[in-house]
Structure formats: structure tokens, C-alpha cells
Amino acid sequence: QVQLVESGGGLVQPGGSLKLSCAASGIIFRINSMGWYRQAPGKERELVATITNGGTTNYADSVKGMFTISRDNAKNTVYLQMNSLKPEDTAVYYCYAEARSYYSDIYRDYWGKGTLVTVSS
């Protein structure tokens, strides 16, 4: 019904930058919040940042001032600009959307398959 596809992951050196993108597709009626979560090896999935369709943002304390979330509502796409990356930012980054399709009258959470970000020298 709603598919999320992430892109932009890869290998970067400490202090470097990456920009992740996530495009939603399908028979979409409306998307409320979109965002990014991450899961490092051996750890639980954790919130990175979210953004409402009105542009209100929320960040994990660990990424404030270094990561910036944005979205293009016309393209149903959310972005995550990551600067000053550290080895501890290494994780699989998952895109998230709270959305409703035309086939349903309720909102539900959708997830992408994830994109790997590796910060290493």
C-alpha cells in the first residue's frame, strides 16, 4: 500500500557528511509524520529524528546540532543531512512514515528496509 525506499547510505570517514533520502510511494492518501530511526550492531532501534507534515522537528539528543531532517511534501520524501559523523553513528538507518493509503481509513506505521551508514577511517 505504501512503500518506503531509502538511499544515500555508505562509508564515510569520521567528521564527514552524508545525506539520506527516503521516498514514499503507493496509493497514498496522506502522510503525517516521517522520520529516521537507526539500529547499531547489538543495540535496539532508536529514534534519530522525526518531522511532521507541518515541519515540526524532533531530534535525539545525540544528534542535535549535527543532523538535520527535512521533507518535501510534494514528493513524499524525507531527508536526513548528517554532518560531523562519528564512528558511533554507524548503524542501519530506517525510514519511517505514519501514513494512510486510499485502501484504508486508518493511519499506520510504515518502514523502509534500511540503508547502512558506516563511519570509519
Characterization of this structure:
The chain is mainly β. 0% of the residues lie in helices and 59% in strands. The strands form 2 sheets. Strands 2, 4, 5, 6, 9, 10 and 11 form a 7-stranded mixed β-sheet that branches. Strands 1-3-8-7 form a 4-stranded antiparallel β-sheet, with no helix packed on it. Strand 9 and strand 10 form a beta hairpin. The radius of gyration is 14 Å and the shape is elongated.
- What structural class do you assign from the helix and strand content? mainly beta
Order of helices and strands: EEEEEEEEEEE
Give me the Rg, rounded.
Answer: 14 Å
The overall strand count is 11
Helical coverage, percent range: under 10%
Shape: elongated
Number of helices: 0
Major sheet characteristics: 7 strands, mixed
Average pLDDT score: 96
**Unreliably modeled segments:** none
How much of the sequence lies in strands comes to: over 45%
CA-CA gap between termini: 40 Å
SSE blueprint:
Elements: E1 2-7, E2 10-12, E3 18-26, E4 28-39, E5 46-51, E6 57-59, E7 67-72, E8 77-82, E9 91-101, E10 108-111, E11 115-119
Parallel strand pairs: 2-11
Antiparallel strand pairs: 1-3, 3-8, 4-5, 4-9, 5-6, 7-8, 9-10, 9-11
